[in-house]
Amino acid sequence: xxxxxxxxxxxxxxxxxxxxxxxxxxxxxxxxxxxxxxxxxxxxxxxxxxxxxxxxxxxxxxxxxxxxxxxxxxxxxxxxxxxxxxxxxxxxxxxxxxxxxxxxxxxxxxxxxxxxxxxxxxxxxxxxxxxxxxxxxxxxxxxxxxxxxx
Length: 150
Prior knowledge:
By secondary structure, the protein is mostly helical. The chain has one domain (8-139). Helices cover 69% and strands 0% of the residues. The chain has seven helices and no strands. The longest helix is centred in the middle third of the chain and has 19 residues, at 61-79. The chain starts with 7 loop residues before the first helix and ends in an 11-residue tail after the last helix.
């Protein structure tokens, strides 16, 4: 039995969040945060409004980094001919992104995807693991399977 990755739930959540925002690119997401902050700034003078918007973008850096990681992973999988991994993530993790996952949601989606494609369920789970690991690597998340050298 494989040890559960410490980033498992975080990666799934990031993919769901990215889907909930409409899968924007990093630049689009930064622009959305900036524009929203400018509209919230209201009647402030332009210099204060810009400063406020830049601060909001900085405050959203973790979410923006997640979006960049998702975008990068998908782009790389597509570029290397592994688009089926992206399809698995879309149809298993990114379905109904605003609803919390319930017990067996992923299992049922894996079964449905494996029948549709067709792949074995085991292979679909491997694809999902690759997507989570790629996200963690791009996002530079700690992986407990690696020993710290210091």
